[in-house]
């Protein structure tokens, strides 16, 4: 990590607590998801609730130390698969706690916290944590306008994904951890 990123990381660590999600934060996560994604792309309340209940350790939340509220989060499910499919968004039974890959199903940062490096910091901390947990690969899908952002975070663009979630055309991206 270069000096500027290190300084940004330190400032964010002072402002935010980074940890797994708590069950009582489910409603906040659902609300944030619906702020960050249009209705055709947002995770349903049921899917989010099921995911939090089954794999809270695969959520990394950033809690604003001043307000105590969730400012953003990254979440996924682990599997031994290496390519993304839409069922990862809705079928928590695909979660394998011993899986070597994590299918990232949502990076959400509230608008008032954007532009400060928080998304990048959440992804960096998530990758570090999952490496320590024995994972080898992060996989996500994103729309064309977000490809460059994820590339700056270290993800490799594999091109158009085998995903039609929300009726959109997605790029599949991977990050070896």
Brief sketch in words of this structure:
The protein is an alpha+beta fold and 177 residues long. Helix content is 33%, strand content 26%.
Layout of helices and strands, plus pairs?
Layout (H helix, E strand, L loop, with lengths): L2 H13 E4 L6 H11 L8 H10 L4 E6 L5 E10 L7 H4 L10 E9 L8 H15 L4 E6 L4 H6 L3 E5 L10 E6 L1
Parallel strand pairs: 4-5
Antiparallel strand pairs: 1-2, 2-3, 3-4, 5-7, 6-7
Helix pairs in contact: 2-3
Task: Explain the overall architecture.
This protein has a seven-stranded mixed beta sheet. The protein contains six helices and seven strands. Helices cover 33% and strands 26% of the residues. The chain is globular, with a radius of gyration of 15 Å. The protein has helices at 3-15, 26-36, 45-54, 87-90, 118-132, 147-152; strands at 16-19, 59-64, 70-79, 101-109, 137-142, 156-160, 171-176. Helix 5 links the parallel strand 4 and strand 5. With 177 residues, it is an alpha+beta fold. The two termini are 15 Å apart. The longest helix is centred in the C-terminal third of the chain and has 15 residues, at 118-132. The model has no long low-confidence stretch (mean pLDDT 95).
């Amino acid at each position: 990590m270069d000096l500027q990123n290190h300084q940004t990381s330190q400032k964010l660590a002072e402002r935010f607590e980074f940890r797994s999600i708590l069950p009582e934060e489910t409603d906040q996560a659902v609300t944030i998801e619906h702020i960050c994604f249009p209705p055709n792309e947002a995770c349903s309340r049921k899917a989010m609730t099921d995911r939090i209940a089954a794999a809270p350790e695969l959520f990394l939340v950033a809690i604003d130390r001043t307000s105590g509220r969730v400012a953003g989060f990254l979440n996924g499910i682990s599997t031994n698969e290496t390519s993304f499919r839409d069922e990862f968004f809705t079928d928590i039974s695909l979660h394998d706690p011993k899986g070597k890959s994590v299918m990232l199903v949502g990076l959400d940062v509230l608008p008032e916290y954007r532009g400060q490096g928080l998304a990048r910091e959440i992804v960096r901390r998530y990758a570090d944590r999952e490496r320590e947990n024995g994972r080898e690969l992060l996989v996500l899908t994103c729309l064309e306008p977000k490809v460059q952002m994820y590339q700056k975070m270290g993800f490799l663009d594999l091109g158009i994904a085998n995903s039609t979630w929300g009726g959109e055309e997605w790029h599949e991206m991977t990050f070896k951890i």
